[in-house]
Structure to design on (718 residues):
């Protein structure tokens, strides 16, 4: 019997800022039963701003900056939504995220940081980059600093952030032997928000490093390589960075919440004017205790926010956040030196930088070294064979949870052959072909055990996966029936979840030319989604049995979804790898199928892996195949994870199909079960290059991965 408690409330964390990251960590260690947590963030990672100057200076790597939100969400039992919130419908209790159905909430919290206030300068959008959001700036800096030669940089904004970046960029470029010229521009005084002693120390550091300072200057326009100033000579620059203060995200003004300067006004409990919406970090205004924007307050607010969210969702009492008045202020000075100030005392040097580094590293270790939660214990008394049936790791989702090809095939051979003339039985094909007075209809069904807690992503991937057999047979999708098993949820959450699933699946089906005509739903142990799909053929369908010796084997999507998902379940895969794998799985293949209409044989690569599905073509066509390993496209991270020993639970069954072939991590990926994998087609050799060019023009990472040979039933690699 499943004793999992039902979800009855939705908590949505908008933004992956430092406060929310700490709340997720705490939630993973002490969740509130019955609460479904959702995190919305534009990307799979959040950048830690405290180490940004050190990264720019070259003291840290890009990975050192990343808080992996997908890994953190897995730890917290939360669903991760990669998207940017654009509004809150408080009346309906919905959060708007472009490109997907709105997300319902009972309580929500906002921690989206800030953006730049100078992007409205004429020419800024085309010729400059804001320092915030951090992701875009980091990518621009990596590209710029990799180019050798002279480097002229202009930083617009002479506050702490602008000065730190200027010193860091100057140090990094000089350390690489480049002729760096860095200029800081401000319409007021440089570092004016600092106490006098600290400001003098900062200005002296910038003068020692020959960073040019232009105070009292108004930027009028930005052109390619040029910053124009009102009444002054323009400044030439190869890189122009905007760091002139922070402003709130514009969409917050449409929420109807009480704001101050665009920032969400919060009470001591961190609640906004709407008690169902909290806010923390730089996007919040502590009206009851005004403080500057500083990371220390985001960190200190996290325990209070966690406690108050739990209280709001369980009927408890809340507590107040009392930000300290005095705190240690640290400024990086480019080299491994820093400036520190507290209680009127100002010190600088290498020892201060080491202190800052220890503080930053301690903060990031909270997310790199997540606590190990003990697995469920085995009952003292249990039936024989239970340990073997459970296996050494959790059961994979998607196609990794399928029954092996050998077991399924043996069962199907024991069924009696069809006696109906209108049902065409084809060797090895997953779909059935029905004959109706000159019309051929393809019928297929597929369902997936969820591997992501986001029902929208799961619905899209399942729809693409179910359509795969239709596309692989050269048919046009026609109609679909949905089959959904929901985990135990309250009626309100059932309605929200079904809406998300059906709206998302319908978008995929409609784009493919099919219509969802109905379906079936039930409640079970976990989320599973399936579709039965029909398609129409206006000519003979493409089957497994038409491959010819000499044909080129073409694959439309990279391999590796199985190993990435298996590793992600153990929090071993990077969030960026997981996000890329999910995006690949959710990519429909209608356009690719149109390009491959003249293929001699075709299949979609799914649960039995590339080798297993290729073996199906070889057996049905009485041919063999030779694969060129170096030409097989692979998802980022898949080879690294395979080298570390990560495998899907279906790997062993798949590898047994071609004994002896899996000898290293790359050949092991041939047996990796794919979910919504690519189409693999045998194409006449004289058409292969044209087909590849057309597929790549459509954005598919297609490749010729081998050729069809005369060695019947044999798959070799080179």
């Amino acid at each position: 019997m499943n004793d999992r408690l039902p979800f009855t409330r939705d908590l949505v964390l908008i933004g992956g800022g430092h406060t929310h990251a700490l709340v997720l960590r705490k939630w993973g260690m002490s969740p509130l039963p019955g609460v479904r947590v959702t995190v919305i963030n534009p990307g799979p990672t959040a950048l830690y701003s405290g180490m940004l100057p050190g990264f720019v200076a070259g003291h840290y790597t890009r990975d050192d900056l990343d808080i992996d939100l997908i890994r953190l969400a897995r730890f917290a039992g939360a669903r991760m939504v990669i998207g940017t919130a654009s509004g809150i419908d408080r009346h309906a209790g919905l959060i708007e995220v472009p490109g997907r159905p709105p997300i319902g909430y009972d309580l929500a919290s906002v921690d989206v940081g800030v953006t730049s206030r100078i992007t409205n300068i004429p020419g800024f959008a085309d010729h400059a980059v804001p320092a915030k959001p951090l992701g875009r700036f980091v990518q621009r800096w990596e590209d710029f600093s990799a180019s050798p030669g002279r480097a002229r940089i202009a930083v617009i904004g002479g506050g702490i952030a602008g000065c730190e970046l200027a010193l860091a960029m100057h140090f990094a470029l000089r350390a690489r032997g480049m002729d760096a010229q860095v200029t800081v521009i401000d319409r007021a005084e440089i570092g004016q928000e600092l106490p006098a002693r600290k400001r003098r120390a900062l200005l002296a550091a910038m003068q020692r490093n020959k960073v040019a300072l232009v105070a009292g200057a108004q930027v009028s326009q930005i052109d390619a390589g040029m910053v124009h100033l009102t009444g002054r000579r323009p400044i030439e620059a190869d890189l122009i960075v905007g760091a002139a203060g922070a402003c709130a995200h514009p969409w917050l003004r449409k929420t109807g919440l009480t704001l101050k300067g665009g920032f969400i006004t919060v009470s001591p409990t961190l609640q906004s004017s709407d008690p169902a919406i909290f806010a923390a970090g730089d996007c919040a205004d502590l009206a009851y205790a005004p403080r500057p924007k500083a990371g220390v307050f985001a960190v200190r607010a996290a325990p209070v926010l966690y406690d108050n969210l739990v209280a709001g969702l369980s009927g408890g009492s809340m507590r107040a956040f009392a930000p300290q008045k005095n705190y240690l202020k640290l400024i990086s000075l480019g080299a491994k030196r820093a400036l520190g100030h507290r209680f009127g005392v100002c010190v600088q040097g290498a020892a201060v930088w080491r202190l800052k580094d220890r503080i930053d590293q301690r903060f990031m270790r909270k997310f790199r070294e997540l606590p190990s939660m003990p697995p469920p214990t085995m009952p003292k008394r249990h039936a024989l064979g239970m340990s073997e049936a459970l296996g050494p790791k959790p059961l994979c989702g998607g196609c990794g949870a399928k029954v092996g090809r050998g077991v399924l095939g043996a069962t199907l051979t024991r069924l009696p052959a069809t006696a109906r003339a209108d049902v065409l039985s084809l060797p090895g094909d997953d779909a059935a072909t029905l004959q109706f007075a000159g019309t051929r209809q393809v019928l297929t069904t597929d369902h997936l055990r969820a591997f992501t807690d986001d029902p929208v992503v799961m619905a899209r991937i399942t729809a693409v996966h179910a359509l795969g057999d239709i596309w692989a047979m050269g048919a046009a999708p026609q109609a679909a029936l949905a089959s959904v098993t929901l985990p135990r949820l309250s009626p309100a959450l059932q309605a929200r979840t079904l809406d998300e699933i059906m709206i998302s699946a319908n978008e995929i089906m409609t784009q493919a030319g099919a219509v969802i005509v109905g379906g079936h739903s039930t409640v079970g142990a976990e989320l599973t989604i399936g579709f039965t799909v029909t398609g129409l053929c206006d000519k003979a369908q493409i089957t497994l049995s038409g491959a010819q010796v000499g044909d080129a084997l073409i694959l439309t999507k990279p391999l590796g979804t199985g190993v990435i998902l298996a590793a992600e379940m153990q929090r071993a895969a990077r969030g960026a790898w997981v996000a890329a794998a999910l995006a690949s799985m959710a990519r429909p293949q209608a356009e690719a199928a149109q390009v491959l209409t003249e293929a001699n044989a075709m299949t979609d690569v799914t649960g039995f892996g590339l080798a297993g599905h290729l073996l199906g073509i070889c057996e049905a066509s009485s041919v063999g195949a030779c694969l060129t390993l170096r030409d097989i496209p692979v998802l980022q991270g898949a080879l690294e994870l395979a080298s570390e020993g990560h495998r899907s639970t279906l790997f062993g069954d798949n590898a047994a199909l071609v004994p002896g072939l899996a000898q290293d991590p790359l050949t092991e990926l041939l047996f990796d079960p794919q979910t919504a994998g690519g189409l693999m087609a045998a194409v006449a050799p004289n058409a292969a290059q044209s087909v590849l060019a057309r597929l790549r023009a459509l954005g598919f990472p297609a490749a010729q991965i081998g050729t069809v040979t005369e060695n019947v039933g044999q798959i070799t690699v080179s």
Notes: The first strand starts at residue 9 and ends at 14. DSSP finds 22 helices and 38 strands in the chain.
